[in-house]
Amino acid sequence: MFQRDVETCPREKLEELQLERLRETVERVWHRVPFYREKLDGLNLRPDSIRSLADLEKLPFTRKSDLRDQYPFGFFAVNREEVARIHGSSGTRGKPTVVGYTKGDIDRWAEVCARAIVIAGGRPGDVFHNAYGYGLFTGGLGMHYGAERLGATTVPVSGGNRSRQVMLIQDFQPRGIAGTPSFILSLAEAMEEKGVDPKRSSVEYGIFGAEPWSEAMRRTLEETWGIKALDIYGLSEVVGPGVSMECWEGKDGLHIAEDHFLPQVIDPETGKMLPEGKYGELVFTTLTKEAFPVLRYRTGDIASLSREPCCCGRTHARMSRIKGRLDDMLIIRGVNVFPSEMEAVVLGLMELSPHYRLVVTREGSLDCLTLEVEVSQAFAATVGGTFDPGTEHYGRLNSHLQSLLKDALGVTTEVRFLEPRSLPRSEGKAARVLDRRGGMSTGVNR
């Protein structure tokens, strides 16, 4: 473990620390962030109103729209001159959300990311191939600082340029790799194109996140690379990567760094707390952030919580893997559909490749969903080598796939087969949804 005393802290002692830090956080925002001062005053709350962790439920929620309304620096709890770094979202749906870090924030961020890498099986001295994007996106720099804090040899390769990355993996012999699952999968494809078997590489563990991915994708990554594929969770509004990490031993939920982040799961409609094991919207309150503390930030991610002991010995709460995002959810003829649910079906068929996208169109007043998916090269070869989706073999596969999708999703989905290697490959987050409603053609980054 990276910090054994912290990671195995008895629950009672951990909750004492959380309460102390929660009070400090409420004190900070009440005095320094006008938005929170107004919200807390409206609820007749003061910092001394927080007497137990149960009082967390009294505090106001924070939404992404609140952050955008205060753009760029309205949520900062320190003078702008004390901010050592600024990160932000892509801003594809309007103004970006802007987050700030003091030097102390960056130090604590490096700490939780180093902890995450160790949870995944990393150790000092590893060569660590970091294929997360660098820039305003928090993924690249977060993992970079964590790897350096751990004492790993960090390769800051970022995303894209698959051919060069293949060369670096062969030459530098990394033990760990990090990136979005869709990009790391396409990287394996690039290796195979060069006649290199990913299973024969030096990589032993992969830290994947920044987009929802299914258990089927995990199996595909592990079988393709011959590694342990592990899930990391984070978001810039809370800190970036390092909020939680799946462990090498258990692969059964992501250990939350509860000494820094206080989790809840709520009913997204009512805002009421849900019991352990129930899926709902994940909410986080930061406990140690100086520049950008947030109270009860609604992430939009669907997950559940558990405080059951883990075989690895860590005592912090675990969150389930993300089932989907509320703003990614498609409503097709009254049925809620998450792209990750479709991914599990696609990756369960050997006749298909793991490269696909969903196309949403509208016929009259009804939305329609089409799955565009590449067939595997092996399947194309077994049915004559010529791509012809009008043949009997393709027709049977189409009917079978539609039946599986209907059972899994509860909604009829059209299927369109594509030639192998015909879809654009991910250079970072995969664009899984193409929204063509209203006469517009819009790629949505999922």
From TrEMBL:
Keywords, alphabetical: Ligase, Nucleotide-binding
Domain AMP-dependent synthetase/ligase stretches: 78-284
Pfam families: AMP-binding, AMP-binding_C_2
Catalytic activity: 2-phenylacetate + ATP + CoA = phenylacetyl-CoA + AMP + diphosphate
SUPFAM superfamilies assigned to the protein according to its UniProt record, in alphabetical order: Acetyl-CoA synthetase-like
Metabolic or biological pathway, per its Swiss-Prot or TrEMBL entry: Aromatic compound metabolism; phenylacetate degradation
InterPro entries noted in UniProt: Adenylate-forming_Reductase, AMP-bd_C_sf, AMP-dep_Lig_C, AMP-dep_synth/lig_dom, ANL_N_sf, PA_CoA_ligase
Residues annotated as domain AMP-dependent ligase C-terminal: 334-437
Superkingdom, taxonomy of origin: Bacteria
E.C. numbers: 6.2.1.30
Enzyme class: ligase
Function as written in the Swiss-Prot or TrEMBL entry: Catalyzes the activation of phenylacetic acid (PA) to phenylacetyl-CoA (PA-CoA).
UniProt similarity note: Belongs to the phenylacetyl-CoA ligase family.
Protein name: Phenylacetate-coenzyme A ligase
Upper taxonomic lineage: Bacteria, Bacillati, Bacillota, Bacilli, Bacillales
